[in-house]
Amino acid sequence: RLLARKQMVCDVLHPGKPTVSKTEIREKLAKMYKVTPDVVFVFGFKTNFGGGKSTGFALIYDTLDLAKKFEPKHRLARHGLYEKKRPTRKQRKERKNRMKKVRGTKKSKVG
After folding, report:
1. What CATH code is assigned to 5-105?
2. Which of 60, 48, 58 is nearest to 13 (CA)?
């Protein structure tokens, strides 16, 4: 398999409930496919008009390392597996103000 995963469209029936949480769906799919919930990624769920049924997408990776390799960063961040390192607010503002003092392609060279 190319991306070392199973992928599927999930239909979730939830009569009487407005929606089902993604963590619940992850745990249920993990139990059904006999894997741990950390390798199950669910996203894109839309609830049908009138409620009672939601449709979304699920990916089940073979290992967590492969999931980290192939999953986009924003979905890893939702699972708490990726943290973007950002400079402090003050550093960003100081850099922006230094960039205002130069023109053109020199902006990229401003530290």
Report:
1. 3.30.70.3370
2. 48
pLDDT one-digit tens code per residue, 71-86: 999 999 999 999 988 9
Q: What's the angle, vertex CA 95, arms to CA 89 and CA 100, rounded to 5?
A: 130
- In angstroms, the CA 45 to CA 55 distance is 5
What token pair was written down for 102? 């130069």
Mean pLDDT value across residues 60-67: 95
> Residue ranges of the domains in the chain?
5-105
